[in-house]
Amino acid sequence: MKSVVLIDDDPDYIANLSKLVKSCIEFSVVAETRSGREGILAIEHFRPDLIIMDIIMPDNDGLAVLKYIRKRCGEYNPYIYVITAMETPVIHAILEDYKVDFISFKPIDAEKEVTGILKNIHMLEPKKIKPINGYIPLPSYNPIDIIVSLLDDFKIPSHLMGNEYIKTILIFMLDDPSLKRKVYAKAAAIYNCTSRSVAANVNTAIKACMGSEMYRTEFGSAKAETLLFLHHLSSIAKKRMQGSTN
Question: Which of 1, 54, 95, 196 is deepest in the core (most CB within 10 A)?
Fold first, then answer.
């Protein structure tokens, strides 16, 4: 029987997912976790055969979990199944770099798609690879790391929901720089909230970082208009990405 750790911040979704996995007698759910941090703790303790996880979550997102597995876990090499609503070329590239085994993009027919993948995994042998220098090499750069570093430079408090919204919005903008106010609706669909809530929280984040040196260098002392702020951050992130690949 293969052990499974579930990582998703939506309590209803994870409850349904757990019920579905438990209905497959070949699998045992050993932990249901609601954040990246909880997921990492469960992985450390259980070393499951399979991790089913989301990407956008509070308190360390799914990409932080992937980085932990690839860098800190030595020869431990579980199957990883990502189920996320973040279907963008940037996310595709990152998941490929982290060698995620299976990917589904919400909304999905969970009973059909998840069950099919579980049957596939059940037939597979445990993965065995020999890491180089004690860990599996990570991608040379990661757009999410660059975005997180940028938000840190602007001193946008990580506990603010606006920080999470800006991070997600910048991913969309890196893929499509022409996005304007539609980007609020795209982010709202990911977080199951309204466009107005996204915009309001981004505004709160902007106000919180106006005293930072980076903000004053880029925008001066006046409050930047929200879309101008987001597009400017997207431009900075893209320049940093280009510098990372040189």
Answer: 54
pLDDT of residue 1: 86
Q: Is 90 exceeded by the pLDDT of residue 194?
A: yes
Strand order in the sheet with 50-53: 27-33, 2-7, 50-53, 79-84, 102-105
User: Are 2-122 and 143-244 in the same CATH fold?
Assistant: no
Task: Decide if 24 contacts 118 (C-beta within 8 A).
Answer: yes
Whether the Cβ atoms of residue 15 and residue 106 lie closer than 8 Å to each other: no
Q: What's the CATH code, domain 2-122?
A: 3.40.50.2300
Domain boundaries, the chain: 2-122, 143-244
Is the pLDDT reported for residue 199 higher than 90?
yes
pTM of the model: 0.76
pLDDT in tens, 53-73: 998 876 778 888 888 887 766
